[in-house]
Amino acid sequence: MKISQKDLEGLKKKVALGNRIMFHQGLADYHGHVSARIPGTRNFFIKPVLAPLGSISVKDIIEVNIDEYKKTCEQNWAKAGNKREVTKLKVPPRETMIHASIYEARPAVNSVVHTHQPLATAFSVAVLGTDRPHAVGSELRRETNDHAADRNRLYERKHDVSFL
Fold this sequence. Notes:
The chain is of the alpha+beta class. It is built from five helices and six strands, in the order αβββααβααββ. It has a single domain (5-163), classed as L-fuculose-1-phosphate Aldolase, CATH 3.40.225. A six-stranded antiparallel sheet has the order 3-2-1-4-6-5, with helices on both faces.
């Protein structure tokens, strides 16, 4: 399936707009993200790590290949380190594994919204507990795959919520 450049740009616009809306509605801080699958591919669009949601534009949106990301996600995390400030790095957010795992487990899903709502975080702690640390990397991928097969939302332990 060949996708026109115009359609790709339109999809990027929707991803950028979705991130700005999520921010302005108070559903996420710097760490939330909207992604969209590029039809007929193993790629999707997402905002880069620590880019300010409220001002995301089409030029900020990056393309991620699921297979390549799985190989390099730890390297990308190392580049971002423990930064909490805005950065110009053009690498995917740390939680891109959530998006990649959902797209891989659910071929019919075309978009993922990962929020950082205070209430959702509180709910995930209340329901899922705090006995284990937040999952990262391949562990996050396994957990997401285990739960994404039959749900339209995921509450992640000690964290937040993703909508499919």
